């Protein structure tokens, strides 16, 4: 079973490597973030964390990610190497995008003629069973590819976001 602490720390290595819980500028213009928690997307949660002294923020940051992104499906994944990447992508792009890329990766591994998962962005027993049955190394690689393709599609649809593509791609390929 996947380990919450492994997934959380992997994600935090991308959001706040030093675990400083300091307020930093973040897109969109005028927004700020603390350990990846953006003031524009999560105003109430951001305000509650920002109100604390910096040294007291860590438990609230961890609670935020556990409450908003972790779910029972992650805990049932067998390989931590896969779980931590799916969780990180959920934090970065949203849970639906993360599950859809997982389903697309699984379908890529299944090959032509094999039964395909519906890439509906929803966790379910079929997605979980397919993930736990797949070759973990091959699935991580396919998931990384699906994640990169997701970011490339964003930039293709909105070229002004190309300034983020190198960073997004590097994060996806870890």
Tell me briefly what this model is.
The protein is mainly α and 174 residues long. The chain is 60% helix and 6% strand.
The helix count comes to 9
Output the strand order for the largest sheet. 1-2-3
Helix content: 55-70%
Terminal-residue CA separation: 21 Å
Notable traits:
174 residues; mainly alpha; 60% helix; three-stranded antiparallel beta sheet
Explain what this protein looks like in three dimensions:
The protein is mainly α and 174 residues long. It folds into two domains: 4-68, no CATH class; 79-172, no CATH class. It contains nine helices and three strands. It has a three-stranded antiparallel beta sheet with strand order 1-2-3, covered by helices on one side. Helix 5 packs across helix 6, helix 5 packs parallel to helix 8 (136-157) and helix 8 (136-157) runs antiparallel to helix 9. The longest helix has 22 residues, at 136-157. The protein is globular, with a radius of gyration of 17 Å. The mean pLDDT is 94.
